[in-house]
Structures are given as structure tokens and as C-alpha cells.
Specification:
The protein has 561 residues and is an alpha+beta fold. The protein has helices spanning 10-24, 31-41, 49-58, 66-95, 100-116, 126-142, 155-161, 180-194, 208-220, 224-228, 234-248, 262-275, 299-317, 483-487, and strands spanning 169-174, 198-203, 252-255, 279-285, 321-326, 348-349, 353-355, 361-363, 373-377, 383-387, 390-404, 409-412, 417-420, 423-426, 435-440, 443-464, 470-473, 476-479, 490-495, 509-517, 523-530, 535-537. The strands form six sheets. Strands 3-2-4-5-1-19-20-21-22 form a nine-stranded mixed beta sheet, with helices on both faces. Strands 6, 11, 12, 15 and 16 form a five-stranded antiparallel beta sheet that branches. The protein is globular, with a radius of gyration of 29 Å. It starts with 9 loop residues before the first helix and ends in a 24-residue tail after the last strand.
Length: 561
């Protein structure tokens, strides 16, 4: 419960550290052993000597009340912290070193940190972690749960990802009309109603009324089209009112503010976390509609900062964050139209030379699995060194070759971005005569594009550099493209074949593709999709006997004909 800094007097902080050290070594704690420990540290006289240590022991009325005394110490620490933070916030307001909104966000974070009473950066002995892990596993088994995280409510999905884990960022990506929002709403309902955990839903695309009406139709199993046109029968109205009873009291909170930015989402989530102690999930619908950092050079850099910020939010609040993402049309240019992980990024071929900090150049394929120090362009336009935190093989993709007047050439995917005169530009949008920023040992200069031609399919690779968000590919300033995929702990895709093929044999179903899972397998499963209810459901047979939650496809009247 206590740490040394919670004590007001420096002498008490030193004494408590000595007590904790003795206890941690499994040695007895009493005035004599503590005095010896302090003597070994050369701090005994600093705290008042042996006489003061004995006086502390004699001043304790009853050792059995130690927990209550500890709470008094902690409460006073919180009050002092609040006073200190209040003074700091007032000083921030007077100094005006940032914009008012940024200062408010910083102030809210400082107050939130006090309420959490957390210690950051502390080591944990493995024994404690093992004990905590066994306690968690025993709790899961005693509760009859299949997962250690927040369950999505869909058996096959939970079987693969074991639920949404605490502090994880989950990306749910798909093309339009695949049902991203419907899936997110179904998960929100399952978490809030089925598990009684709080859900924060930020909707940047749809209004509160539209979202709630969708949830009502899904819950009551009534046709959403008929509801919107006022064509429900009396029996359907009765179903609607009955089914909405559990929704009415569910801990589900909706914010439909348009053009919300990351700072606002952080602030609102922190306030809700303080209010809703059992907050289980944060949903953002959808990522590309969020307003990013105005200082970013381009939209892709904005999205990179947003995805990193959402990951930090998940860790700060110890709550999974589900962020929806829209995929580009390149999915539809591929046979089969099924999304894959590489759709979230743009890459270069194996022979692309990476400019390293030591002056050498190495093919990107030879750096896979490393964290090399590379050359990048700083925000003020100079060459600087930066550490890459990941280099990896993406897989085969159609590629283009860009040739420059200096004789340099680079092969990459169509949407890979290079720095042009007016900002980053995709390879597919480059024209002959365009100028790209390039590097020579003495300076940065503008190199002219001679030709851009498709050159078949090749295996491509990618490299991410936090901070500058770029790196020098054979001296050409190349954008760091993989932030969303890199930051995500889990990436889910939705694919419904009937969207592209009206005669599909899989009509009425959807594939949930697990494209990435940091701590588990990838794979896919199939769910029912009832279009008229905008509802996903487990297929018949997926819900084991005795586990039915009333949301399987058979109870919704689903069938394959």
C-alpha cells in the first residue's frame, strides 16, 4: 500500500526504505535490525539515531491497526500531491507555454495520475508475477470463463484471441459495407449487458440516435429498415420495448462529438474511468475520422500519431481499446478481395538500401529482426540519426520502380510514400519530372524523377522509426508507413463475400480474420450476419450446450436455406 515517498518527513522515508529492504531479504524487522541497516548505509544519525527509532515503536498504540495507519499516511500524501499539482497547474496557466487545450489535457492527466496512486517504472520480482498469474487463472476457472480478457461474446473469436486483453490496442479493419460498426456495437452490447462492464463508445461517423436505434433493432431482432420508416407492427413494438430493458440500464456511454481529437478522447476516457470503476472497453469508430496533430506534415503522419496515442491510452487506463479502421480500395484490386495485414502498410523490396548511422548502406532484407540505428530527416529538415524499432518481411506485393536523375532507383508498393516538394507523395502518384528529397554525404538536395514503371510482384519489407517517422532508402526520404499495424496488439478484419458476389454460397455469413496477434496465433472464423438486424451472431453449433446466451444465429432464425 505504501512507498517511501508517501511519508512527509525525509527521515521517515529513509527509515521506511530500510524496513522494506530488510523485509524483502526475508530478515526480521525491529529497532535493532533497522538501526544496523541504517548504520550500514551511513544514515542512522541522519534519521535521529537509535533513540528516535525506539521512540517510533513506543508511539504505536496497536500494531493490529497498521493498515489503518497506512491509509492515513497515504491519504495525507494524496492531499499534498493535490496541493502540489494545483500549484503546478496554476503556474502552467500563467506561463502559457502551450495551447489552452494542451494545458487542460496535461492538467487532467496530472490529477488522474494522483487518483490512480500508481508507481511507474518499478521492477517486479518474478515470484510476485507468478503468484498474481496463478491467482488470475484460478479466478477465471472459478468463474467458468474461457478467456482472461474482456470477452467479445462470440465463441469462435474468443477461442482465437482469448478476448480483448487489458492495455491492448485492437484494430478492426474492413472495406465499407462489411459491418465494422455493427460488429463493434455487438461487442459493446455483449460487454456491457452480458458482462456488466463499462463501455465507452466514441462515434465520429454516426449520431447517438442512429447507434442506439441499431442496437435496439439488433437486440429485439426487428427489421431496422422498417423501424426507420415507421412500419413496425404492434407485436414488433412490444418486442422492441421488452428487448431494450437490459440496454436501458447497461453501463454503455456514447459520445458522438464530430471531429474529436486524441486529446479529447484521452480526457473523456480518464474522467469516465474515474467515474466507472469497472470500465472494460473503449471503442473508437473510426480511426481515419479523428482529428490529428496540426503539426504533422501530412495525414499519414497524423494517423501514425493517433494510433500510437490510442496504444498509450490503453496502457495508461489498463483497458482494451478497439479502434475501427477503413481499408483502401487496393483490397478490391486483388483476386478474392480478402483483406490481409499488408493492406495496412506500404513497403519496399528486399534490395532497398537502408542508410545506417555509421555511414554504411545495408539491404533491408539483411536487417530483419534488428533495431538498427538509421539516418532519417529531422523535423527541421536536417539529416539525423534515429533508432528503428522493427524491420520485417511483409510478403509478396505488386511493386513499381522509381528511377531518379542521379541514377538512384527504388522499388516499392504503389502507395509507399516518398518526400516530394509539397510533402509526401505515393509512388503511384509520382510523375516524370517530379522532385524528391534525397541525401548526399554533404547535404539534402532535390532529385528529379526520370521514370516510374510497374515491375511485377516481389517480396517486400518494411522498417519503422518512431519519432522522425521516416528513414533514408538509398538516400531518398521514405515515410514510416506501418504505425497502425505496428502499434496494434491484435488486428481483426471482416470479410463478407456477398458484398462482391451476389450469388455467393456464403451469403448470410462473415469471416473474422485475425491478421495479427502479438501474443497468440492468427487464424479466422465464421459468424452469421443478419443484415436486417445489423447483427453478428455465433453460427448454430458454436454455442455449447448450457452456454446459450440467446444471441446465437439459430435463435435469430438464421439458416443457409
Amino acid at each position: 500500500m505504501l512507498q517511501s515517498q508517501h511519508f512527509y518527513r525525509p527521515a521517515h522515508q529513509v527509515i521506511y526504505e530500510a524496513i522494506s529492504e530488510l523485509y524483502g531479504r526475508g530478515q526480521p524487522v525491529d529497532p535493532i535490525t533497522v538501526a544496523a541497516e541504517l548504520g550500514n548505509r551511513g544514515r542512522l544519525e541522519d534519521v535521529g539515531g537509535r533513540v528516535y527509532l525506539h521512540s517510533l515503536v513506543s508511539a504505536v498504540p496497536a500494531a493490529t491497526n497498521a493498515r489503518y495507519y497506512a491509509e492515513i499516511v497515504r491519504e495525507n500524501y494524496l492531499l499534498r500531491s493535490l496541493i502540489e499539482v494545483g500549484s503546478t497547474i496554476a503556474d502552467m496557466g500563467y506561463r502559457r507555454e502551450s495551447s489552452p487545450l494542451e494545458l487542460i489535457d496535461r492538467a487532467e492527466q496530472m490529477v488522474f495520475d494522483i487518483s490512480q496512486v500508481r508507481s511507474s517504472g518499478e521492477f517486479s520480482p518474478i515470484g510476485e508475477v507468478i503468484s498474481d498469474s496463478f491467482a488470475e487463472l484460478e479466478r477465471i476457472m472459478s468463474e467458468g470463463r474461457r478467456t482472461g480478457g474482456v470477452e467479445t461474446g462470440f465463441r469462435r473469436v474468443d477461442d482465437i484471441i482469448t478476448g480483448f486483453q487489458l492495455a491492448n490496442l485492437i484494430i478492426l479493419a474492413a472495406r465499407p459495407s462489411m459491418g465494422k460498426t455493427a460488429f463493434a456495437l455487438n461487442v459493446a452490447r455483449n460487454v456491457a449487458v452480458g458482462q456488466g462492464k463499462g463501455v465507452a463508445l466514441f462515434s465520429l461517423e454516426m449520431s447517438k440516435m442512429e447507434l442506439v436505434q441499431r442496437m435496439m433493432c439488433s437486440e429485439a431482432r426487428v427489421d431496422s429498415h422498417r423501424l426507420r420508416h415507421g412500419q413496425l407492427q404492434a407485436a414488433e413494438w412490444s418486442k422492441l420495448t421488452t428487448a431494450c430493458t437490459p440496454l436501458f440500464t447497461a453501463p454503455l456511454w456514447i459520445d458522438d462529438s464530430a471531429s474529436v481529437n486524441l486529446m479529447e478522447i484521452r480526457a473523456k476516457s480518464r474522467r469516465l474511468k474515474a467515474r466507472e470503476k469497472n470500465l472494460g472497453l473503449i471503442i473508437v469508430d473510426y480511426l481515419q475520422l479523428m482529428v490529428g496533430d496540426s503539426s504533422a506534415e501530412n495525414r499519414q503522419q497524423e494517423i501514425s500519431r493517433i494510433s500510437r496515442g490510442l496504444k498509450i491510452l490503453a496502457r495508461d487506463l489498463d483497458v482494451p481499446v478497439l479502434a475501427l479502421s477503413q481499408l483502401s480500395r487496393q483490397v478490391e484490386q486483388r483476386s478474392g478481395n480478402r483483406p490481409m495485414l499488408s493492406d495496412l502498410r506500404e513497403c519496399v523490396t528486399a534490395d532497398t538500401l537502408v542508410c545506417l548511422a555509421d555511414g554504411s548502406r545495408s539491404p533491408i532484407a539483411e536487417l530483419v529482426g534488428m533495431e538498427p540505428e538509421v539516418l532519417a530527416m529531422s523535423q527541421d529538415g536536417y539529416v539525423a540519426t534515429a533508432r528503428s524499432d522493427r524491420v520485417w518481411r511483409v510478403g509478396p506485393r505488386p511493386v513499381f520502380e522509381v528511377r531518379l536523375a542521379s541514377g538512384r532507383a527504388l522499388r516499392g508498393t504503389a502507395r509507399h510514400r516518398l518526400l516530394g516538394v509539397e510533402g509526401y507523395v505515393r509512388i503511384e502518384d509520382l510523375e516524370k519530372g517530379a522532385e524528391l528529397q534525397a541525401w548526399a554525404p554533404s547535404e539534402l538536395f532535390w532529385d528529379r524523377v526520370v521514370d516510374v514503371q510497374p515491375c511485377g510482384v516481389d517480396v517486400v519489407y518494411d522498417l519503422t522509426v518512431p519519432g522522425p517517422a521516416n528513414w533514408l532508402a538509398d538516400g531518398i526520404v521514405s515515410h514510416n508507413s506501418g504505425a497502425i499495424e505496428q502499434d496494434a496488439d491484435v488486428v481483426l478484419f471482416i470479410y463478407r463475400d456477398e458484398v462482391y458476389n451476389k450469388e455467393s454460397p456464403d451469403k448470410g455469413t462473415a469471416e473474422i480474420i485475425v491478421g495479427k496477434q502479438r501474443n497468440g496465433p492468427i487464424g479466422e472464423c465464421r459468424l452469421a450476419f443478419i443484415q436486417s438486424y445489423t447483427r453478428f451472431a455465433d453460427l448454430p453449433g458454436d454455442v455449447r450446450h448450457g452456454e446459450g446466451r440467446g444471441d446465437d444465429a439459430s435463435s435469430a432464425g438464421w439458416g443457409r436455406g
